[in-house]
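Bench notes, bay 3.
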Amino acid sequence: MIARTRLASTIAPVLASIALLAGCGGAPSPMADPQAYAAARPEMVAPAAPPLQRSYFTKDVTGALTEQDLQTVLEAPIDLQLPARIGVIPLAEPFDPKGAPSLGLRNTASHHFAKALAGNPHFSQVTDISTDLPNVGGIEGLRVIAARYRLRYLVLYSERFEDSTHLNGWAWLYPTVIGMFLAPGVTVESQGIAQADFLDVRTGTILFSVTEPLQVSKKEQMIGAARSHRDEQGKIAADGARSLAKRVHVQTNALVAFAEATHGMQPRPKLLPPPVVASSPGTGVASEMGLAKP
């Protein structure tokens, strides 16, 4: 009887320890489920970075960034405030309002491109913008112009052509003199693009850019070929501007849809292993990940 009592008193603490260990092992770790842990301890989850409230780029034509400011811009979410008033500004050179756009470019931007943008539910008003206002050039100059119009967003419109005009087979008739007036010996040809860039005026960042290819190719008589070439470029640019406006609609709608679909969500980082694993102390040997060993 005494031996049995001693055995029970010896086994009881052991059984209690085993039960305690089993209970601890069965309990889920607070870090096993990150979502449950975040819900239970929201104060321990790193807060999301706030949206940008200003431009971090330098106030000159270079628009440079320090490394710290670059990381700040990339880590901040995009504050998409649409519907909003937008302005269409014709530019002789992309992203530079200092140049004087031609009258043909202004006409294409206002009559064809801006008119085609109207009607989008995300654009409460589409207005033409003049680059005749004083500005410092570059993105900062565009922001100053937009501020005078009290606009949050600008659509920068530009177009450019590369001339490839050349003589064709009909030019063999030019020595007859009559052929110079009747034969279509000149092929007026050029390749170009129309470009639209969506600028967030508050932050000085570009939300998206779209381009539309332009092409002119037509046989003309030698006399008046240059004038005909300009007319053809104007027609092609007008058609391209309307097609470009459709691309802007698609990009804007996609941007808004993405913002609505991801509202309140914080993206999880997807990490790849490093290409080279650091060598262990004393070995001096580094190994490469993902490579078959010989």
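Next record in the batch:
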Amino acid sequence: MRATFYDTKDRWARGQKQNTRSRNAINSTQARINAARDEYRAARTALINLSQLLSQPMDESLQVLNDSDIRSMKSTETDRDSAGKVFALSKALRPLEDEDLRPIQQAASGTVGLTGDTRKTLSWIWRRGNITDGEDNSYYDEEIRVEWAKSRSRVARYREEMNIVQEEMNRTLRFWDWKADQWMALASAQDTRNLSPAILDGMKAYSWRQAEMCRRLKVTFQAQWRDVPELISNSKELASNPDTWYEMKEEEEKKLEAAKLRRLASRALGKK
């Protein structure tokens, strides 16, 4: 709804009167979003306290709602932030932050300049199956289906690009083999020409030199690309099993956090 108001304001609102009305409508919608956010956080806090008193486990569907989670279905985030947030979907009780309260079409704050659908992530608030229980969820279901289709298309394109890269590498190596054979054939064909021995020897030497250059180029490319097949294989495995990628990113986050703590501790000791 808020995205629609913003779009209407940008497209059609002209003059102070219309812009003021649009601004009031947007502020009213934002106030309702903030009220829903605060209500969720208060209810979650109460349930946490009750679960501790009753020694009962919390419902894992009641995740912590961060401000960064209240955003549109299309948002741009860095790979590191995206990995941490998506992997946290398996965790319970995510916090609700102000920046999470965004419409489906609005990008996350602090991500200006990032383009491309591969950098966009879906906030977990749109992933909950019961997000619109008791309401008309036809619009929500349609948006989820659209985003799912786009994500599936991106994965298919990603796999296609990997296959294309691998095939282009193989064709390049085969080309240098073919080119070397062509130069060797030219060297052999010089014997049939009615030329002086000195000229024939020079033409053969040049052909052999070119053939050797092609072979060396092939060896050079093979050395430069020796790790590419393994990278492609790992990428295909990660595309088929995203949980493995999220686990890998979480380990990287832990290492970065540990390194940050070590630096802070070192600075604190240095000041003393």
